[in-house]
Design goal:
The complex is a heterodimer.
Chain A: E1 5-7, E2 10-13, E3 19-24, E4 31-37, E5 44-50, E6 53-57, E7 64-68, E8 74-78, E9 87-94, E10 104-105, E11 109-113
Parallel strand pairs in A: 2-11
Antiparallel strand pairs in A: 1-3, 3-8, 4-5, 4-9, 5-6, 7-8, 9-10, 9-11
Chain B: E1 4-7, E2 10-14, E3 19-25, E4 32-38, E5 45-51, E6 56-59, E7 62-67, E8 72-77, E9 86-93, E10 98-100, E11 104-109
Parallel strand pairs in B: 2-11
Antiparallel strand pairs in B: 1-3, 3-8, 4-5, 4-9, 6-7, 7-8, 9-10, 9-11
The chains are: A mainly beta, B mainly beta.
């Protein structure tokens, strides 16, 4: 177990709705990264937060947004859901930034958009 | 941006045999290369990693090699066991932006 937790485990939404996914980092970790993993593919980097500021972003539209709180827990928000947003959403926590740091993943939230 | 290619996409071996998975990357600035194992319904689990200042690293039955000149790295699993069956992902990290390969489904037949 990595100590990274995510909630909820599963979620079903309809197209156009908004969703908030939550992540609790491993103790002592100040950096969180979010990934989208479509079925049968590798995780794709959405963005990273370090000390409550966005620290890098992948090729995802602005309707994907995030927050990191003072206790380093984090949220991923997705607005105007589309069918293609159906995927496993993973968060990973790490210590520090700049230099590549080992990332520890949570179990993921499986989102289904109908 | 970084592009990571992983081969093969599926690999089937007999218990006790070795398994090798290969990855190539495109950005020479990448300096950290982790390998993750993902079992059904779970998040990726780090199994071994290597940084650009090292050519090889071993941890019991698992080893990783890195050729920075050729921009490729490989995972070697020896004496495979049925519990090694899973999907394995390689990744290359530029410093916060980690790019993953498409994964290799390894099946170890008893």
């Amino acid at each position: 177990e990595t100590g990274v937790t995510q909630s909820p485990t599963h979620l079903i939404k309809t197209r156009g709705q908004q969703v908030t996914l939550r992540c609790s980092s491993q103790s002592g970790h100040n950096t969180v990264s979010w990934y989208q993993q479509a079925l049968g593919q590798g995780p794709q980097f959405i963005f990273q937060y370090y000390r409550e500021e966005e620290n890098g972003r992948g090729n995802f539209p602005p309707r994907f947004s995030g927050l990191q709180f003072p206790n380093y827990s984090s949220e991923l928000n997705v607005n105007a859901l589309e069918l293609d947003d159906s995927a496993l959403y993973l968060c990973a926590s790490s210590l520090g930034t700049g230099e590549a740091e080992t990332q520890y993943f949570g179990p993921g939230t499986r989102l289904l958009v109908l | 941006g970084e592009n990571v290619e992983q081969h093969p996409s599926t690999l089937s071996v007999q218990e006790g045999d070795s398994a090798v998975i290969k990855c190539t990357y495109s950005d020479s600035a990448s300096n950290y290369f982790p390998w993750y194992k993902q079992e059904l319904g779970k998040g990726p689990q780090l199994i071994i990693d290597i940084r650009s200042n090292v050519g090889e690293k071993k941890d019991q039955r698992i080893a990783v090699t890195l050729n920075k000149t050729a921009k490729h790295f490989s995972l070697h699993i020896t004496e495979t066991q049925p519990e090694d069956s899973a999907v394995y992902f390689c990744a290359a990290d530029l410093g916060g932006d980690m790019r993953f390969g498409a994964g290799t489904r390894l099946t170890v037949k008893p």
